[in-house]
Protein 1
Amino acid sequence: SLYDFGMIGLGVMGRNLLLNMADHGFSVIGFDKDAAKNSALEAAATPGTTVKGVAELATMVQLLERPRKLMMLVPAGQPVDDVIASLLPLLEQGDVVIDGGNSHYTDTLRRVKQLREKGIHFMGIGVSGGEQGARTGPSIMPGGDLDAYAKVQPMLEAISAKVKGTPCVAYLGKEGAGHYVKMVHNGIEYAIMQLISESYTLLQKGAGLNNDQLHEVFKSWNQGALQSFLVEITADIFLQNDDKSDKRLVDVISDKAGSKGTGKWTSQDAMELPVAVPVIDTAVAMRTLSGYKEQRLEAEAIYKAPENTIHADTEMWIKQVHDALYFATILSYAQGLAMLREASSDLKMEIPLPEVVKVWRGGCIIRSSLLEIFTQAYQKNADLANILLDEGVAYLVQSVESNTRSVIAQAASAGIPVGGFMSALSYFDAFRTGRMATNLIQAQRDYFGAHTYQRIDMPGTFHTEWQQH
Ligand code: 6PG
């Protein structure tokens, strides 16, 4: 008999998603050239479920119920185009092909058009939650045409994470919207990870906390307003022993940070729109700067750190850093969501922000109790320009503002790098300033380049012959 769903690429994500589908009663078939991955798939299946692995793409396609529904989980870029090229001769009109990887949305747009000409539905779907999420319930961000979504909706709802019984999946807009939302999710992920690592330095260098104490702090934070997946795993990380030395693993890990590009794409696209996402930009820049290991060691010998130390007592400092992390985390979501709003109208994707924040509440890497608060904000006003303009969010931000300023001031005076926190605060201070100092930039542009300016007291465009003094 024929199978309900097919998967191309049985790496850990593909395999786990497929097993998750099988656990929810779907009969599934996976394709991977690597025979070992096919047997690994079958061996991992829950007894009683229908799971098959094959080493020929054509065999898999023949064994699928029509219209066929299949997903590919292969590395972004050329591998996706290669899979499409080998699939095309095997497919028929009405089939649905899903790209569940981290593809760039412009590639997705191109592929949607390419397959539409052949009568095949192509959907870009963001999947978040890592290995574990894929197996037990990821957050799923689908975009594309609604007819195709209807065909896979029951399956996606079945396998997704659930929050209060609601599946963490919803139709998130047209064409490349799924991958766009996932890209911005990853930008926010970069920002929050940067902020957590700054909090770690502030507690470790600023207050001398050891790994056990850091574990306790993050564990208690995860039980309060900062409850989130990233804070939760951070607490765990401090306790992990190294099996190659007598140290904690975190202390022997190199500080050069890797990246696969999705954070960078978020910043690049934000510049393109344009929309301001400085916390994400800083997070990307700090991963890059972390790679300058030799130069940093050289500079460390030249530039001595200031002698100033943190003056708050330890308990007080922990509370202040908590508040700064809360503040800057809200700012990171605010910038990412503002970006989605702008991109949605600019690229005509019709991304429903109230649904985005609901989908992010569970399963994904940036899930946190804050998303419940944002969900309420969008319930009050679905067209909110920036979540900072919501009354409830404003109240929360104001409650931690002064501790945030204090942390940043002390970090600056002690020479502890907190670029993420600083970016969050400077965005906030500019955003809450009704009249910025950019009138001077307009004057300068007009002075040297006759770029013209507008006035505050009358309509029109003006140019002045500026006088040298
Ligand atoms: C997720 C993650 C996932 C992955 C990214 C981040 O939502 O499950 O975002 O997509 O961890 O690849 O990668 P880098 O940090 O390597 O850029």
Protein 2
Amino acid sequence: EEAAVARPFRQRLLVVANRLPVSAIRRGEDSWSLEISAGGLVSALLGVKEFEARWIGWAGVNVPDEIGQKALTKALAEKRCIPVFLDEEIVHQYYNGYCNNILWPLFHYLGLPQEDRLATTRSFQSQFAAYKKANQMFADVVNAHYEEGDVVWCHDYHLMYLPECLKKCNTKMKVGWFLHTPFPSSEIHRTLPSRSELLRSVLAADLVGFHTYDYARHFVSACTRILGLEGTPEGVEDQGRLTRVAAFPIGIDSARFIRALELPQVQEHIKELKERFAGRKVMLGVDRLDMIKGIPQKLLAFEKFLEENPCWRGKVVLLQIAVPTRTDVPECMLLPFSYQKLTSQVHEIVGRINGRFGTLTAVPIHHLVSTVFLVWTDRSLDFHALCALYAVTDVALVTSLRDGMNLVSYEFVSCQDAKKGVLILSEFAGAAQSLGAGAILVNPWNIIEVAASIGQALNMPAEEREKRHCHNFHHVIMHTAQEWAETFVSELNDTVVEAQLRSIE
Ligand code: ADQ
């Protein structure tokens, strides 16, 4: 009994995601060093303590030899990570091709690739075949490590074929699938050549989760319109079998941010930033360098604002942190929506704004192309710098063209209890549903509207700022990542029990 008190039973949770939360660097034939890597999911699961979690995923490197694979598997085991080894050709066709060239843009309403882009990655068919093959490889690793009673939680658009692969082998396995991106309107999903196969596979899961009710509704109506299945308030029914579909809005580990603000090194950063930008209002953007984040549109809106409000020139600064992503993929393999083109476009607009409105003493935009990553086990300096930036900001600008949720908006709010700054938030980010009442919501495509909202935010009376902030702060501290994961997994457990009861009846 004593032992039971000391070590309460914790259900094993197998988190299956395309990427492990670490990057592996080879140091020798059988030696590896591991670095924790950033990303929305990593940040979200940081706070989850309830389960004994294991991660299953690709380590981001090609390891063709057995000695290397064995050594990496061993090193990763210490971090409770289990690798799936994918060779270069699979990565090219599955990850760069099907995931990032087809599903990512489609789910963010950017449409399917034009033929010229498709041609460079060979045919759509071969990409889809590689996608299925890769998903089967993930399933093989899950099966090898699965123990009865485990919960298997599959993540994101990379692994839509996984629930079917898993259930084919073991119908009793508890399988959940969660999508971190938006699920688009069924009219968009309809254009996907493999639309039915993907929907059917996802429906093999016991529980299917999305960030918002809208995404869940889009998914159910895609199943109704494309597969002819019945949508019920609980989910989707197919020949008496129900797949539960629901919204589980993600949160962050807000306490971690709030605690960090008290640390001397963060206070030191804050002091430095305050001195550096004394006399100026600070606006902040923190985004991965991705088409969906609407960085050029944000810059154009800032330019418009300065154009129309000469009194603010030299009195406001925009810090745009752009984090290059998918840099673990060799340049020659990077095809989707030319990230290079986006980079040069961003540089061009920044240069132009600084040329037009910059002075020797006040450059309006500090464009930092950083490779800073949020460390998930450790408290790195980078995390501290990020917290300090959030804390000194007067106005945060989140102008995603589409975004599943957007955790940056949550992180900003959690660091603003002293300052009570303003959040300008795209209505096309999932976060608009939860932080909409406190934020200024904008259509990021409407540059004039965003420019006007910058003026509104900078001039907002303290009383209104406080009211808006309190609303959002309350939401962010009440709806944490931990709660998100616990709710999803307990709902998954319940769903499976209910299904068993139904089958007995
Ligand atoms: P992302 O598209 O990566 O996530 P987001 O939700 O904003 O977008 O998360 C980014 C994370 O990276 C944040 O935790 C942020 O702090 C961190 N980060 C960004 N730049 C950083 C920097 N320079 N230094 C340190 N950390 C940095 C995807 C979906 C989102 C969804 C999440 C979670 O696209 O819509 O909210 O998954 O489901």
